[in-house]
């Protein structure tokens, strides 16, 4: 087999090492356009998991790396003159030049041909006389661009500028330093990669001598801050000197240096396919993940391990390349989701700088969602205990079981059963199903149980199976539910969500075709503008005139009066998901030319009129919340800045909290799904608009709930599907955390089940002797 590797970075070199080691008969050539000792950046961080794979695949390389690594456990976070330390994290780093040197030596010992200062021929040309072409040619991959029609790359350029620099001394931790300057917030990411010893092997033969050790230093800031500070007109030396001045305190007044360092904006690379015939992408050519989670070299080396294993294991090359992508893509996508969360957190850093010191540090440490409250406690219990004390957790009480007050209502814990449409009502009437469904979840321990969207008129229903509050009979039926909750699950609050379907009404129940029109019996729908949800599928709505607006506002107030008589503890106004009030808020669905369209102020006008009318008839001591879609996940839709302004407007009119959801406004949305994927929007609204928020969206574990609360991203967490899977989710979360306090009391008839039932033994005795 003849193999060509385009690019002599760590991923390409290690792929060559492994493939040659597995079969010495392979003829492998690596093309690298730069000299052997040319490299960008300075230090490389590898995880223990990656090192374990290297040790198993090539002990020789692993031994060489082990001799080089700088190891440390602490993360230091410097902000506003205070440094907070969290330990137990475990990092290993070495100089990038030394890593390349080790791989060069290993390639040469195995007989891999290295062609330095030699641009590779085009991949298509190499593919004609090689069995396999590995394109490891980086984020600006010429191979990927040459075959873009096949790989279908998607490249996203982000909003921060950053520069790779170095300091000629070794930090004793992973260091994050925040500088609030007259131009805006800047941050430093720093970590050691060389020990402070003159005899360190990194002095031979490529690495410079570091008698005091050395550290990678990355300086990053928003594009507008970068320009305001004048960095856009600085050369490398000027940038280096100015960065050293900004961060003089953490650097101890010592200088920084560059290595052909330039300011750049991070680009996230995603490809629809990773191979084309016998050409395969590896490392940054296939995918990138933001440096703030230390992933680039790690992912490339892991790609090399997987590719070599698949070539060895599969019967032919097409099967090998397919297996490689199948194995690696889920891992990469997970890493990219974590990296995207981290990247966006730093993009929005200015939103968090006013948080209390420990909460700010906890928020930073858990920003990617890979580090959570529970595993941070394992790493550094003292730090986590201090964050909990600052949060106000009573002794032996997890954050999720601390009470929270909204107006005259005190919730015994921070868990909300999110509104979930059940589609089983008849003529808007809640029945036995709703009693059992909501009653079971109230018994299950949540602090607040929300109804599904309860519609304010027959025409305001989404489907024929939706509940309503437009008759006194419906109000009496709801009273049956609230009485059960208050009498049988004392301490649990129950809330009602009022809404109107707008242009998304008159459709089938979910399991018969979500958002599809009824086969028969459709009723007319209305909206802000005459735009169907799906052109050619859903009906064109009637654009509401003055009379229609007044009628709907009156329907909301009448429903709110009935809700109060029904005994609900909280009322939520549904202004999300493309339903009627949401349709006024989004610029994609509101094309009006009157006082209710155009500017955000005008688009807010009718939803605020409805809110004011409902607040006027809702009991003063009972809270009101508002659910919004903080983004439409579509170009030209609601922006994050719009969402903050919407939240501020409702809060100014008396909303006690904002329930922050996203999307479902337009049919061609492109959501970025993932664990807790909507939480960043709640985080921004809470910390910028300074209003209590409810976070929703793929929050599934009690660990995530604790993490979100402690980080100050939300005040309450709403969970939907987990409560369908387990009505007693909150009680089980308490049991899992050994919590027995007042925040999650078991109903007396259920108390015998408060411990997990015993199961069969699985811990078989281990062998005592090994006989030859």
UniProtKB/TrEMBL annotation:
Q: What SUPFAM superfamilies does the record point to?
A: FAD/NAD(P)-binding domain, FMN-linked oxidoreductases
Q: Which CDD domains match?
A: OYE_YqiM_FMN (cd02932)
One GO MF term on file is:
FAD binding
Q: Where is this region: Disordered?
A: 745-772
- Determine the domain of life of the protein's source: Bacteria
Residues in coiled coil: none
Q: Which InterPro entries match?
A: Aldolase_TIM, FAD-bd, FAD/NAD-bd_sf, OxRdtase_FMN_N, YqjM-like
FAD-binding domain mapped to chain residues: 3-336
List each copy of the NADH:flavin oxidoreductase/NADH oxidase N-terminal domain by range: 400-734
Its name, as the record gives it, is: Salicylyl-CoA 5-hydroxylase
Output the lineage of the source organism: Bacteria, Bacillati, Actinomycetota, Actinomycetes, Kitasatosporales
């Amino acid at each position: 087999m003849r193999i060509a590797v385009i690019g002599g970075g760590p991923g390409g070199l290690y792929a060559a090492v492994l493939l040659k080691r597995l079969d010495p008969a392979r003829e492998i050539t690596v093309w690298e356009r730069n000299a052997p000792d040319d490299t960008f950046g300075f230090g490389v961080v590898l995880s223990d998991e990656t090192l374990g794979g290297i040790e198993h695949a090539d002990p020789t390389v692993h031994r060489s790396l082990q001799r080089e690594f700088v190891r440390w456990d602490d993360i230091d976070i410097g902000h506003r003159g205070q440094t907070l330390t969290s330990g137990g994290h475990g990092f290993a780093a070495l100089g990038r030049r030394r890593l390349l040197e080790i791989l060069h030596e290993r390639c040469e010992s195995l007989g891999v041909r290295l062609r330095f200062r030699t641009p590779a021929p085009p991949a298509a040309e190499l593919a004609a006389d090689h069995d396999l072409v590995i394109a490891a040619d980086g984020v600006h991959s010429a191979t990927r661009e040459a075959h873009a029609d096949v790989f279908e790359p998607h490249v996203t350029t982000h909003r921060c500028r950053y520069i790779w620099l170095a300091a000629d001394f070794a930090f004793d931790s992973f260091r994050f330093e925040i500088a609030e300057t007259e131009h805006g917030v800047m941050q430093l990411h720093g970590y050691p990669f060389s020990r402070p010893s003159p005899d360190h092997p990194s002095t031979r033969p490529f690495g410079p001598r570091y008698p005091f050790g050395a550290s990678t230093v990355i300086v990053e800031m928003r594009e507008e801050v970068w320009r305001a500070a004048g960095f856009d007109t600085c050369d490398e030396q000027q940038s280096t000197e100015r960065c050293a001045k900004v961060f003089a305190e953490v650097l101890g007044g010592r200088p920084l240096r560059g290595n052909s360092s330039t300011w750049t904006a991070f680009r996230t690379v995603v490809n629809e396919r990773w191979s084309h015939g016998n050409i395969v992408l590896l490392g940054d050519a296939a995918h990138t993940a933001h440096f703030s989670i230390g992933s680039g070299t790690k992912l490339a080396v892991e790609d090399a391990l997987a590719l070599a294993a698949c070539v060895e294991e599969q019967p032919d090359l097409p099967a090998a390349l397919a297996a490689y992508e199948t194995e690696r893509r889920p891992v990469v996508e997970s890493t990219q989701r974590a990296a995207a969360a981290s990247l966006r957190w730093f993009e929005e850093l200015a939103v968090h700088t006013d948080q209390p010191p420990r909460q700010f540090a906890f928020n930073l440490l858990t920003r990617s969602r890979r580090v959570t409250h529970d595993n941070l406690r394992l790493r550094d219990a003292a730090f986590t205990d201090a964050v909990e004390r600052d949060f106000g957790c009573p002794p032996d009480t997890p954050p999720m079981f601390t009470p929270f007050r909204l107006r005259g209502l005190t919730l015994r814990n921070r868990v909300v059963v999110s509104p979930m449409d059940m589609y089983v009502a008849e003529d808007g009437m809640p029945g036995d199903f709703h009693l059992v469904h909501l009653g079971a979840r109230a018994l299950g321990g949540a602090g607040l149980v929300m109804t599904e969207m309860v519609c304010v008129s027959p025409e305001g229903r989404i489907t024929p199976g939706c509940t309503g509050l437009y008759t006194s009979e419906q109000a009496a039926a709801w009273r049956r539910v609230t009485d059960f909750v208050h009498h049988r699950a004392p301490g649990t609050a129950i809330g009602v969500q009022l809404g109107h379907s707008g242009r998304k009404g008159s459709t089938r129940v979910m399991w018969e075709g979500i958002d599809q029109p009824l086969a028969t019996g459709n009723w007319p729908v209305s909206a802000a503008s005459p735009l169907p949800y799906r052109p050619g599928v859903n009906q064109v709505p009637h654009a509401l005139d003055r009379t229609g607006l007044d009628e709907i506002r009156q329907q909301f107030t009448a429903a709110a009066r009935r809700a109060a008589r029904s005994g609900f503890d909280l009322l939520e106004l549904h202004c999300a998901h493309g339903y009627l009030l949401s349709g006024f808020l989004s610029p994609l669905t509101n094309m009006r030319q009157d006082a209710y369209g155009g500017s955000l102020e005008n688009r807010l006008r009718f939803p605020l009129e409805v809110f004011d009318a409902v607040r006027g008839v809702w009991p003063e001591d009972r809270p009101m919340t508002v659910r919004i879609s903080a983004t439409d996940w579509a170009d030209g839709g609601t922006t994050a800045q719009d969402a903050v302004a919407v939240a501020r407007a409702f809060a100014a009119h008396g909303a006690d909290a904002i329930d922050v959801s996203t999307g479902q406004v337009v049919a061609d949305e492109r959501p970025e799904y993932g664990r807790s994927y909507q939480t960043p929007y709640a985080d921004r609204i809470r910390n910028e608009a300074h209003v209590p928020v409810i976070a929703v969206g793929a929050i599934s574990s009690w660990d995530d709930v604790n993490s979100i609360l402690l980080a100050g991203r939300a005040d309450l967490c709403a969970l939907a599907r987990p409560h369908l899977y387990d009505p007693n989710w909150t009680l089980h979360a308490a049991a899992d955390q050994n919590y027995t306090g007042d925040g999650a009391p078991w109903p007396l008839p259920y108390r015998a089940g408060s411990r997990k039932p015993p199961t069969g033994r699985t811990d078989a005795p281990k062998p005592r002797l090994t006989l030859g």
